Amino acid sequence: MLAYIARRILLMIPTILGIMLISFVLVQFAPGGPVERIIAQLQGQDSGASSRISGGGSDFGAQSPGGVGAGDASSSRYRGAQGLDPQFIKQLEAQFGFDKPAYERFLKMLWDYARFDFGKSYFRDISVLELIKEKLPVSISLGLWMTLLSYAISIPLGIKKAVRDGSSFDIWTSAIVIIGYAIPGFLFAILLIVLFAGGSFWQIFPLRGLTSENWAFMPWYSQIADYFWHLVLPITAMALGAFATSTLLTKNSFLDEIRKQYVLTARMKGLSERQVLYGHVFRNAMLIVIAGFPGAFIGAFFAGALLIETIFSLDGLGLLSFESIVNRDYPVVFANLYIFSLVGLAVNLLSDLTYTWIDPRIDFETREA
Predict the structure, then answer these.
(1) Alpha-carbon distance 180 to 313, whole Å?
(2) Are residues 39 and 170 in the same domain?
(3) Mean pLDDT of the residues in the chain
(4) What is the 3-state secondary structure (H, E, C) of 349-369?
(5) Could you tell me which residues are beta bridge partners of residue 203?
(6) What are phi and psi of 12, to 5 degrees?
(7) Is the pLDDT at 62 greater than 80, yes or no?
(8) Which helix (H) or strand (E) holds 237?
C-alpha cells in the first residue's frame, strides 16, 4: 500500500504541471489582461466586478500616463492604448511581468509555486497567500459543514428508503428529494431570506457575515452559538441539492446489494435483518457513495458556494476566484487553481484509501501489478 501511495503522489506532479500549463496557455490567448484593465481605468471605462476590489495595489492606477506618443508597436498590442506614451506601457508590462517571454514567466511561476510563494495580487495591496488565508474560514465553514450535514442525513435516509422500497414512506420522501434536487440552491437561499431573515416574515437568522460584529467580545460558548447561527441559512441552501443526490445514490446502491445472492444466504443462516444490513450490505453498498465524496466535497468547498457567498455576503474563495478571473488578477487565479488541484488530487487519494478501509478485499496495488 505504501508503494501505491508513493506512486499516486508522484503522479500528482505531472498532473499539476499539465493543469497549470494548459491554464497558462489559455490565459495567453484570452482577451483582456491587467495591462488592459489599467488602460481602461485611465480611459474611465473600467466597470463590473473590478469595482468591488478595494485598496488598489497598482502603482499606476491613479497616475497620469505622461506624455502622449504616436502609439508604436508596444502600445498598439493593447486595446485602447493608442495615443498613450509607449514608455508608460512598457512600465506597466514590467510591473506585471509581461516584459519577459511567456516560457520564462511560466517556469518562474512553477518554481515559486513549488515553494508556495504565490506573490502579490495585482490589484490588492496584499500577498496572495494572505488573501487566501483571509477567505479560507468562510469556504471551510461552508464546504465542511454542508458535506457533513448532507451525508449525515442522506445516508440513513437512503438506507431506510431502500429497506422500505415501494412503501408510502419511500414515495413521499422521494417526492421531497426530487423537489429539493430541482430547486436551484440560490433560489432556495432567497426564499430562506424572505421567510427567516427579515425579508417579509420573520427576523430569526442573521442575513450576512459569518459572525456578529461583537463576536470577539463574546464568551467562547456564545461565539460557537453565534457562528453556527450565521451558518444555518447558507448551509441549508447549499445542502439541498447535495442532500437529494446522495440520498438517491445511497438508496439505489443498497437496493442493488440487497438483491444479491449473498444477502439471501445470510438471511437463510438466521441472521437478523440488522445484522444482514449493517454487517454485510453496508460495507459493499457504501463504496459507490464514497466514490462521489471527493466531487461533492471539492464542489462544496470551492466552486459550489459562489452564489451562496454572494447572497449571504460571505467573502470566501468562491467569490474571490470569480472576481479574480473577471479582473484578470492572474496571481490570485493561478494560486487558487494550484491549491484547488492539489486538494482535489489529495482528496481522490484519500477516497481510494477509504475504499480499502471499508473493504479490505480491495487492493489497488495488486490491481496495478
Answers:
(1) 23
(2) no
(3) 78
(4) HHHHHHHHHHCCCCCHHHHHC
(5) 197
(6) -65, -30
(7) no
(8) helix 220-258
| Total number of residues shown for the chain | 369
Q: Does residue 151 fall inside a structural domain?
A: yes
Could you tell me if residue 266 is inside a domain? yes
In angstroms, the CA 129 to CA 126 distance is 8
Q: How many structural domains are present in the chain?
A: 2
Please provide residue 128's backbone torsions phi and psi, each rounded to the nearest 5 degrees.
-65, -40
Domain enclosing residue 352, as ranges: 129-368
CA 6 to chain centre: 26
The cell for 63 is: 497616475
Name beta bridge partners: 29. Answer: none
For residues 322 and 326, what is the distance between their CA atoms, to the nearest angstrom?
A: 6
Bin 221: left if φ > 0, else alpha if -120 < ψ < 50, else beta: alpha
Instruction: Please check whether residues 91 and 234 belong to one and the same domain.
Output: no
Residue 12: strand pairing partners: none
Q: pLDDT-based confidence at 34, cuts 50/70/90?
A: confident
CA distances from 114 to 3, 135, 300, 339 (A): 23, 22, 26, 11
Cα–Cα separations (whole angstroms), residue 331 to 111, 130, 337, 346: 14, 12, 10, 22
Residues 221 and 302 in one domain: yes
Give the cell for residue 264.
439471501
User: How far, in Å, CA of 195 to CA of 161, rounded?
Assistant: 30
CATH number of the domain encompassing residue 311: 1.10.3720.10
> How far is Cα 30 from Cα 27, in angstroms, rounded to an integer?
5
pLDDT for res 294: 65
166 with 295, same domain: the answer is yes
